[in-house]
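Hi support team,

I've been running sequence recovery on a batch of backbones for a student project. Most finish fine, but this one hangs at about 90% for roughly twenty minutes before it completes. I'm not sure whether the input is malformed or the queue is just slow. I've pasted the C-alpha cells below so you can try to reproduce it. Let me know if you need the job ID as well.

Thanks,
M.K.
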C-alpha cells in the first residue's frame, strides 16, 4: 500500500483547518461615510422650502422570479413645517398629495376619487399618522426623515466610501451602506450643498434582489403661494373615505 507523503498530508490538514474555521470579515463601517450621511441630513433639515423632481425606477418580481421594471416621476414641493404638495405619475396610477397644515388630501387623478382628512401641524407628524393609522407612506418620505431620530444610523452594519462620481452633471461622492434586510447606495453632492442626487435600495429578503432607484433634481428657491397646498375638488370628482387600517385591525381582533 502506497503511503501519502507527509508534506501532502500537512497541506491537506492546513487546507481543512482554513476552510473549517475561517469566518467572513464583519462588514466595515467607515466613520467618514456615516459623517457624510449625517451632514447631508442636517443640511436638509435647514431648508425652509424646496422643490425636487424625482425619476424613480422600481422592480416588481413575478411569481416565477422574473423582474419587471416600472418607471415613474414625483414632483415634490414643500414649505416646512406644514406645506406639502406631491404629484406622482407612473404606469399604474397618477396621484396628488396635498397638505396645508390642517388637512391632508389624496386625489387619484385617473379615477377622479379623492379623500380628505384632518391632519396634524407638521409634515413629520403627518407622515407618522399616515403610516401608523392608514398604512400609507408618503412618496420619498426619507427626504423628510434624514437628519432626524427616524433615521437612526445604528441600523447600519456596513458603510464604505466608494469614491467620486458624476450624476447628471453634478459632482458627487458615492457611498454604500448595508443593513440586515437591505443594501443601499447614495450619491451626495459635493461642496456647500450636500444634497442627495441618487439613491439605490436593494431588498435582500427576496432572492430576486429587487431594486428601487431614485434620481433627484433640486430647486432650492421655488416660486409658490399658499394655494399650491390646498385642494379644490374638480367638478365631478367623487369623495371617498380613507380607510383607517388601525381601527379595522382592532375591529377584527
Amino acid at each position: 500500500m502506497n503511503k501519502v507523503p507527509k508534506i501532502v498530508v500537512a497541506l491537506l490538514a492546513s487546507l481543512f483547518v482554513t476552510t473549517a474555521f475561517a469566518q467572513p470579515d464583519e462588514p466595515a463601517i467607515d466613520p467618514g461615510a456615516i459623517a457624510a450621511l449625517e451632514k447631508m441630513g442636517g443640511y436638509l433639515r435647514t431648508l425652509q422650502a424646496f422643490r425636487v423632481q424625482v425619476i424613480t425606477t422600481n422592480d416588481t418580481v413575478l411569481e416565477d422570479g422574473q423582474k419587471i421594471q416600472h418607471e415613474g416621476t414625483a414632483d415634490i414641493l414643500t414649505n416646512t413645517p406644514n406645506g406639502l404638495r406631491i404629484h406622482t405619475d407612473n404606469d399604474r396610477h397618477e396621484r396628488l398629495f396635498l397638505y396645508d397644515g390642517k388637512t391632508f388630501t389624496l386625489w387619484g387623478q385617473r379615477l377622479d376619487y379623492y379623500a380628505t382628512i384632518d391632519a396634524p401641524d407638521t409634515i413629520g407628524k403627518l407622515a407618522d399618522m399616515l403610516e401608523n393609522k392608514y398604512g400609507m407612506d408618503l412618496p420619498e418620505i426619507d427626504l423628510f426623515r434624514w437628519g432626524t431620530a427616524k433615521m437612526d444610523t445604528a441600523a447600519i452594519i456596513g458603510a464604505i466610501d466608494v469614491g467620486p462620481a458624476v450624476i447628471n452633471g453634478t459632482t458627487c461622492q458615492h457611498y454604500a451602506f448595508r443593513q440586515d434586510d437591505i443594501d443601499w447606495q447614495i450619491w451626495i453632492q459635493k461642496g456647500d450643498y450636500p444634497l442627495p442626487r441618487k439613491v439605490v435600495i436593494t431588498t435582500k429578503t427576496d432572492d430576486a434582489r429587487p431594486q428601487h432607484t431614485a434620481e433627484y433634481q433640486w430647486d432650492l428657491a421655488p416660486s409658490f403661494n399658499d394655494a399650491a397646498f390646498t385642494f379644490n375638488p374638480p367638478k365631478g370628482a367623487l369623495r371617498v373615505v380613507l380607510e383607517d387600517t388601525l381601527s379595522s385591525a382592532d375591529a377584527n381582533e
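--
Follow-up from support: It reproduced on our side and the slowdown came from queue contention, not your input. The two ends are 74 Å apart (CA to CA). No action needed from you.
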